[in-house]
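Section 3.1 - Work completed
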Amino acid sequence: MAIQIALFNHKGGVSKTTTVFNLGWMLASKGKKVIIVDCDPQCNLTGMVLGFKDSDEFEAIYQAEGVRNIRDGLAPAFESRPVPIEAVTCEEINGQPNMILLPGHIGLAEYEVTLGIAQELSGSLVTLQNLPGSIFHLFNLTAKKYNADYLLVDMSPSLGPINQNLLMTSDFFLIPMAPDYFSVMATNSLASIFPKWRAWAEQAKTNPLLRNATYPFPAKSPKFMGTIVQKYRLREGKTPSAAFQKWINEIENGVKNKLIPALKKSDMLLPDANYTNANITLCEPIIQMSDFNSLIALSQKHKAPIFSLTDAQLEATGIVLERTKKSMRQFEELYSDGADKIIHLAENV
């Protein structure tokens, strides 16, 4: 069964989509078969990967024959259609045969209220009992279809029922952050939210109606992998400036003193030895990197990861080109090291 990793923070602007794409590509370059899943109704991941710029291009996928996006995949359960859920036909990604995209759909947001009702009732209504397990079932079928090793799930910045379901039916989760006041506040907030979600999932796993549904709610126990901190400026090209370092320190303190104790109490951590063996220090980021500057725009323009852009795609010459290539190599090393840690942690449980 594929390993499902959710990337979640209810604070927006922390580069979740960028991280999913680049981390997925790096895992794929290491021989893993990866599905990146767009679960944000804004569909930024779908638009970036496929190079879409307007709604007409999305419409081509939405109108294509078969099950081609997450909303159509879930429609049999959420719209009570007399057909079973089937695997999504994913989109290939140029330049990386080991990674594919399960496209998003703006209409996924329409299912939020219905799923919320089903989860609050914990399956007490037979007509709703198939909904809490349907997303996991769809992902599982799609992963089997493509023989995937990993699913990386890009989530929206909200605390709604869909995100609650996505995170609590994953194997692991990462928390992307930016070094600012709002990420510090989000760390404190997540220390309160995750235990509540965990308590709901434990109840759902033991509910007979949900356990025996057509799409059973899975017996998952998601574990925290760590944080990813980026989008800060460097001082003299080497270390974060004093202002950004202050926020990085505060995030690490919040993770250490509030988030980790809350997760430990809720059994959302692996044993300490697992992190040590993967060379992970829990209160420190798995990946910490500076602002991508112009690289992110070029990455999106050429639908390629920031560390695999060619000289021609970098659109620079001379000393500027050399400086940019040096940054690329640094980002590649950071993502490679982070991917190695994630693989070790995920595959040695």
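Second construct:
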Amino acid sequence: MAEQALVTGATGFVGAAVARALIAEGFAVRALARQHSPRTNLEGLAVEVAEGDLTDPASLKRAAAGCTAVFHVAADYRLWTRDAAAMFRVNVEGSRAVILAAMEAGARRIVYTSSVATLGIPGGGVSGDESTPVGFADMIGPYKQSKFKAEEAVRRLIAEKNAPVVIVNPSTPIGPGDVKPTPTGRMIVEAARGRMPAFVDTGLNVVHVDDVAAGHILALRKGRVGERYVLGGENMALGDILAEIARLCGRRPPTIRIPHGAVLPIAVLAEAWARLIPGAAEPFVTVDGIKMARKKMFFSSAKAARELGYVSRPAVRALEDAVDWFRRHGRLG
């Protein structure tokens, strides 16, 4: 009989990749999904859907029943929000509720998906890792703050209740299935459509979403309870990322580099406009995003490679798959 695994966030980008990887490994997968969540990423997958919500502990208990492995991937991932308190409820209280539900169900191992957003960044292009010093005061904006507090809450459950949790910290996943899309996916789409003629001097650690998913399964099987593992790929300057996307789309790469200070007023105006318009989408340029971009967000996955056997493909392969997926799904015009 196949081992039963629950995946929260399975309708989303990383969660769907984790679900696909688990199915390929022979797991019976149960996907937690909100009642009205789009389920495009679950089409064609042999998953059992359990309707529930991170803010409804009773639904989490029902979803976790009978599962020996739980992957808590779901999160409210936005760089701008009208309601920071709601983001904290989902990311902090929701994470705590999932861990408690999994423990009550008797799960032998829980993999909690945190983020490199909770880690320190040394600056100067030096890569951060699991041990880089950082505090709450270093967290910029509600998303990073809520993920930092969520990881703290999970760590308390490990220490106080012996929760069998392994923590993974993905960097910047890209690839197929970014249906929303994520903030990074939006950047890829805009660049592919020739709508990013300029850029700021920053950098990201780019990783294929399927490598992140494989890292989750490695964490389940080989990770040490209470430890965290960066699941990253290749460090790339933003200018190089945009140049590669331009090459893939047959466009000229952007060459204009704008100072961070020059973009900040644009972000302020974009956020003010979004607040005035009911139902407006997240601004493409945000104040928190510009503040974060002042440091190159470079990270090392050496610990995951050493302890889990984690590997990642070249970033160009991830960019190719992302552009191809967006093109095939009509996102590039």
